Amino acid sequence: MREWIIGAPEEQAARTLRDAGASPVLARLLALRGFADADGAQAFLDCAGTLHDPLLLADMPRAAERVRQAIEKKETIAVYGDYDVDGVTAAALLTGYLREQGADAFAYLPERESEGYGLNSPALARLRACGAALCITVDTGISALEEAESAREWGLDLIVTDHHEPHAELPGAFAVVDPKRPDCPYPFKGLAGVGVAFKLACAVEGPGSETALFARYGDLLCLGTVADVVPLLDENRVLVKRGLDMFAQAGRPGLAALLEQAGAGGKAPNASLLAFTVAPRINAAGRMDSALPALELLLTASPARAKTLAEHLCACNDARKREEARILEETEAVIHADGLLQNKVLIVAGEGWADGVIGIVAARLTERFERPAMVLSFGEDGVGRASCRSFEGFALHKALSACAPLLEKYGGHALAAGFSIRRENLPAFRETVEAFAADCDILPVLRLDCALDAEDLTLAAAEDCARLEPCGAENPAPLFYLEDVLVAEVRPLSGGKHLRLACRMGGRPFDALVFGAERMGRTFAKGDVLDLAAELSVNEWQGRRSLSVLVRAVRESAALARQRARYRRLRAGEEDGAPPGRKACALVWRTLAAHDGGVLEPKRVCGALRLQMPELDYTQFLLILDVFRETGLAAFSRGEGGLAVRVETDMKVRLEDSPLMRRLMGAGGHSPHVSSGRV
Question: Where does the record place the DHHA1 domain (predicted)?
Answer without folding.
Answer: 343-438
